[in-house]
Amino acid sequence: MTTVTSSPTNPKLPNIHKTPALIQVIQAMFDQFGLLEKSQKKYGDIFYTRKSSLLPPFVIFSDPKAIEKLFTADPNLFEVGEQTSVPIRILLGSNSLVVLNGLEHKRQRQLLMPPFHGERMKKYGQTIIDITENVINQWQVGQSICIRDYTQEISLRVILKAIFGLDEGKQYNELQENLVSLLEIFNSPLKSLFLFLPPLQKDLGFLTPWREFLRQKQTIKDLLNTEINCRKNNPNTFGEDILSLMISARDENGQSMSNEEIQDELMTILFAGHETTANSLAWSMYWIHYIPEIGQKLIAEFNSLNGKTSQKDYNSITKLPYLSAVISETLRLNPVVVFINRQLKQPFELMGYTFEAGTSLLPSIYLTHQRPDIYPQPKVFKPERFLEKQFSPYEYLPFGGGNRRCLGYAFALFEMKLVLATILSQVKLELLDNHPLKSTRRGITFSPAGGVRMKVKALR
Length: 460
Description:
Blueprint: E1 2-4, E2 15-16, H1 21-43, E3 46-49, E4 58-61, H2 64-72, E5 78-79, H3 86-92, H4 102-112, H5 118-122, H6 125-136, E6 144-146, H7 147-163, H8 170-185, H9 189-196, H10 209-233, H11 242-248, H12 259-290, H13 292-303, H14 314-318, H15 321-333, E7 342-344, E8 348-350, E9 353-355, E10 360-363, H16 365-369, H17 385-388, H18 409-426, E11 427-431, E12 439-442, E13 445-448, E14 453-459
Parallel strand pairs: 1-9, 2-3, 4-10
Antiparallel strand pairs: 3-4, 5-7, 6-14, 7-10, 8-9, 11-14, 12-13
Helix pairs in contact: 1-9, 6-7, 6-18, 7-12, 8-10, 10-12, 12-13, 12-15, 12-18
């Protein structure tokens, strides 16, 4: 067993990525998936990048046995690294569950978990269907649309209603407008560089993206703080929305969350639960129409339930096996995030090496989902693979894993199933982007390039 260090004299490192970290970051902004595939082909199943001023030493791998060892290890062996989490802290805040460690992470997770699972979550089913119908009722036969614009509108409206309990009005409209504007600041690979390169994070005048980002973010936080205080001062306004539940939540010591903690968790939900779901829905719509027989199978499955989608038992919709398989395959082939990150607090053995404290271990979601030994013909969109086999949480990990698995994964799947069922059963669409689409970076997530252009053919 060898101890891996950043010393250039150590001859027994895993294969070392020769490209400097800064260049890798820039390349990743423009072609993250291509860079990963080329790196794996050149350096093998595990490769290592030495420490730099930009990043700690890091290791990328996709072996399920290594991932299992990582996910089942004592969580106290790891922490969220300051350098690697800079983009997330900038967007979400330092109180976000995503960047908390140890007892703070455990406490916050326990406070936030109940609304996203079980019967509480299911209460939002009709809200999701109603919002989807309201959005697609805007469409006209013959109209050309960018489907991602509408999946973003749907997912944001679901968040504002289910999370904040807001109906349309001044507060609702201001939050919606500012959130969309904030997301658009980093809507391209070039603009995303500002999140990953600290030297660019400077206010150099009114034309710089960084000033606009800081202004928009502060506006949103002010709006959130106003809503939190309004709700705290008027307990009679509490409802089934998640903000009300967050304000009411108490930990085992009877302590509630502070305004700052609630703000950052709301920002986390708004980004993690809105942008990611919108992108995954757009990819699903692409594949369903790019391979017409998939759409035909889904329609047949919907028709096996009686009545219109809005009148059906949405719990039955979410249990449809082929619909679930289509979503699973979308998340496999087009993950909206690329890595899971665990930074070591002490040495850790993995795949024949013992990595030193401070090293970031980065199991790659994308490379794991592209392994032909797990997924034959991995580039082919084939929902049937999820009907034929059950994959382990170390082979299929779109929501991460271990004690840091995405808290809202069940809500995201629930929402995606209801939105797709509602759209496909009520509108006939034609794919205009009838060619292979690539993923493009939008800040810290990935979406289909161009947003998936479609044409409204008929209303069912």
